[in-house]
Amino acid sequence: MTVRQPTDSINRLLARRAEARRALLGWFAGAARDLPFRRRRDPYAVWIAEVMLQQTTVAAATPYWEAFMARFPDAAALAAASEEEVLRLWSGLGYYRRARNLLAAARLVAAERGGELPGDVAGLRALPGVGAYTAAAVASQAFGVPAPALDGNALRVYARLAAVEGDGLTGSAACAVKAAAEGLIDPDAPGDWNQAVMELGATVCVPRAPRCGACPLATLCGGRAGGDPETFGQARARPATTAVLRAAAIVRDRRGRFLLRRIGPEERNGGLWEPPTVELARGAEAAVSTWNGSLAARLRDGLAARFGLDAAVGAPLGRARHSVTTHRIVVHAAAAELRGPAPRGAGWRWLAPGRLAEEALSGEARKLLAIARRAGPAAG
Asked: Residue 107: is its pLDDT beyond 80?
């Protein structure tokens, strides 16, 4: 597609910026969802919320934010924590690199800035894990910096308002979207403005069938004036997905405890705990998702080759599904019994069922152990 930079459309929009600011901020004052992290504007609380909300829904992130803030109320408290403790509170939220970056950034802030976050976009971007969006969101909400925060919702809203064709993340379309965002942001209330734009994108200016009749900016929207706002601000086509087939050995001792392995730092979800798990296939071969004797044999051989475990693989207990970026993963849980000695060392532990909620388990591990618990104490 040939992308046009809609200079005339942007100029018409910016000529009415005062009207746009009044309309959107007035709408936001009455329509904003009452979210716990919106009640606080201190930089640390805003930062934690913005990082948690990346790749995560508001509903999923909110209880994690509340628990995290209760345990680590400021950067100094977070900096003093161990990685395992941070991962334990993050367990189930996914994308664990975010938690490790938060810890690294908190330690840097505690050591070099007395626990205070930088108050400008450039300083925030210098922190581990802080990108352009997060820096602008924190700077605008906590420090009043007029920096547009451009997440997916905001990009879609600005692209439709300015009738920008093409991919708002790259090339001339990105330049046009940025020009519209920088020109519209309210310098007197940049944090409220950014949140209002994102709220509008999340609840009204949605990807499909936008609710133009409920939009406070409908009369200013270039996309709506063109008759088909849906054609603007659409995300790029998603990359192809890869199927992955895995299996986990559910081993229990006579006390009913589960055998867990700490995931290595070089692996996905490094530092978290899970039952010993083996990848069986990926791609077309992974489409075979029904448990059979061949998969049981491959799990047995994989346990021996990867972990040195001599185990008899027994009955299937169930399977879990989840997605990570472009991977669609099916994981079978199978009962297993050790025929040799139990593994020793810091990378292994036996964990009682009653303590599972306290440990830093991967989301996959939580699903598998829930399956095992439903199967009963005799499993494994």
From this structure: yes
| pLDDT for position 1 | 40
| Active-site residue list | 50
Residue pair 178/161 in contact (Cβ under 8 Å)? The answer is: no
Q: Residue 380: is its pLDDT beyond 60?
A: no
Establish how many alpha carbons lie within 13 A of residue 163's alpha carbon, considering only the half-sphere containing its beta carbon: 20
Q: How does strand 258-262 pair with strand 242-251?
A: unpaired
Residue by residue, DSSP assigns 69-125 as HHH--SHHHHHTS-HHHHHHHHTTS--THHHHHHHHHHHHHHHHSTTPPPSSHHHHH
Among 61-70, 99-108, 201-210, 220-229, the range scoring the smallest mean pLDDT is 220-229
Average pLDDT of the chain? Answer: 92
Q: Which two tokens stand for residue 201?
A: 């994108």
- Spell out the alpha helix ranges (H) of the chain: 7-14, 17-31, 43-53, 58-71, 75-79, 83-90, 97-112, 121-125, 132-143, 152-161, 171-184, 190-203, 222-225, 293-307, 363-375
* H/E run at residue 246: strand 242-251
Residue 60 has pLDDT above 70, yes or no: yes
Residues 6 or more apart whose CB falls under 8 angstroms from that of 140 comprise 146, 147, 148, 149, 185, 190, 191, 193, 194
Measured torsion, CA atoms of residues 317, 323, 328, 330, in degrees rounded to the nearest 10: -10
pTM of the predicted model as reported, rounded to 2 decimal places = 0.84
Residue 376 has a pLDDT of: 72
Q: How many whole angstroms separate alpha carbon 18 and alpha carbon 3? A: 28
The pLDDT value recorded for residue 6 is 64
- Residue 260's DSSP bridge partners are 349
Please tell me whether residue 354 adopts helix, strand or coil conformation.
Answer: helix
Measure the CA–CA gap between 261 and 276, rounded to whole angstroms.
6
